[in-house]
Design brief:
This protein is of the alpha/beta class and about 325 residues long. It contains 13 helices and nine strands. Strands 1, 2, 3, 4, 5, 6, 7, 8 and 9 form a nine-stranded mixed β-sheet that branches. Helix 2 runs antiparallel to helix 11. The longest helix is centred in the C-terminal third of the chain and has 35 residues. It binds bis[(2S)-2,3-dihydroxypropyl] hydrogen phosphate. Bis[(2S)-2,3-dihydroxypropyl] hydrogen phosphate binds next to strand 8.
Length: about 325
């Protein structure tokens, strides 16, 4: 009898100490991305970090660093894979270095709307990709911080792939963008965002590609590239990535709050940008930006070769993605 009471007392004391330990828990994470203060992604990340801090009573402190102040792009994801107390916010093409199927998810001219992409990220095919990312040490907290369809932003008017011949177009440094702009007919010129506007100003590149939210938020419109060709060639979106090691060491009650807040933040940002796009276009036009339609069939034909599975991709992954999208469109 005494042994039983003693065991019960020990177990009670242990669980109480664990509870106290959990209440005494503190984790500081550094969150890195390349967006500017005026862009919604920056505002959304700050809001999510603040909400997590409040809801965990300060146990989880996420310090946000915009404009590539910390390692970003490929280097940011490497910090996550190394198990740093770090959150990387980049587009899924940068996860493609670890799980090639993410390059298929981020392939050009797949989506007709934000909603199609969001719905696809909730389907098993993407859940399976996310599970593979965890095997590589990357816990994906979100994939749908959508910042808009990327269009061509150039000095001269572009309507067909032939118009891009010989033109140097700045892209982010991932192969997905380089292959896409090359297939579209341009000379893809990878540069970090921080060097992009000066490269345009100095004529190092003939243009860039990005969304209207990027155009407005980073004041691209103030430069010489006043023409936007509405190719909508890539749906610009960011994921939120944390080390699985760091994630698994976090007490469950805090993991639930972190996941819930990043999910909510993405939903809110998608809704906001869908509602704002028309006004953003009007504001850009008031600054002298001119939008033009393009020969969509010609660009789709030019990009068709990119729907071949690359090294490490699951056989049939593109057919599976097209099948999911077709099911949404019925
Ligand atoms: O990896 C995150 C984005 O895909 C980066 O795209 P990028 O380098 O064209 O930057 C977008 C801008 O809105 C950053 O201010």
């Amino acid at each position: 009898m005494k042994k039983g009471l003693l065991l019960a007392l020990c177990l009670t004391l242990f669980s109480a100490s664990m509870a106290f330990a959990a209440d005494d828990y503190k984790l500081v994470l550094k969150l890195s991305h390349v967006f500017s203060p005026a862009e919604q992604l920056t505002k959304s990340m700050d809001a999510v970090a603040e909400s997590i801090y409040e809801k965990t009573d300060g146990a989880i402190e996420i310090q946000t660093f915009p404009q590539a102040q910390l390692p970003a792009y490929k280097e940011g994801v490497e910090q996550v894979v190394r198990g740093a107390k770090f959150i990387s916010v980049e587009d899924p093409s940068f996860i493609g270095d670890y799980v090639p199927d993410f390059k298929a998810l981020y392939a050009p001219m797949l989506y007709r709307s934000f909603d199609e992409y969001v719905e696809l990220t909730r389907r098993d095919i993407v859940k399976q990709m996310m599970a593979k990312a965890e095997e590589q040490g990357i816990k994906i907290l979100a994939l749908d911080y959508i910042y808009g369809f990327r269009n061509l932003i150039t000095k001269k008017v572009i309507t067909t792939p032939a118009d891009l011949n010989g033109m140097k177009i700045r892209t982010p440094g991932s192969k997905s963008y380089i292959d896409t702009l090359t297939a579209m007919g341009a000379t893809a010129t990878p540069l970090p965002w921080g060097e992009t506007l000066s490269a345009v100003q100095q004529g190092v590149v003939d243009g860039l590609e990005g969304s209207e939210f990027t155009n407005l938020g980073t004041k691209v419109y103030e430069g010489p590239t006043k023409n936007v060709a509405t190719t909508r060639h890539i749906l610009g979106t960011c994921g939120v990535y944390i080390s699985t090691k760091v994630w698994n060491e976090m007490p469950e009650k805090y993991r639930a709050i972190v996941q819930e807040e990043f999910t909510k933040g993405a939903n809110d940002m998608v809704s906001l940008l869908k509602s704002q796009h028309g006004d953003v276009v009007k504001e850009l036009e008031s600054y002298g930006v001119k939008f033009n339609e393009v020969d969509g069939d010609a660009f789709r034909k030019a990009l068709a070769p990119l729907y071949q599975e690359g090294p490490g991709m699951t056989p049939g992954v593109f057919d599976a993605i097209f099948g999911e999208l077709d099911s949404m469109r019925k």
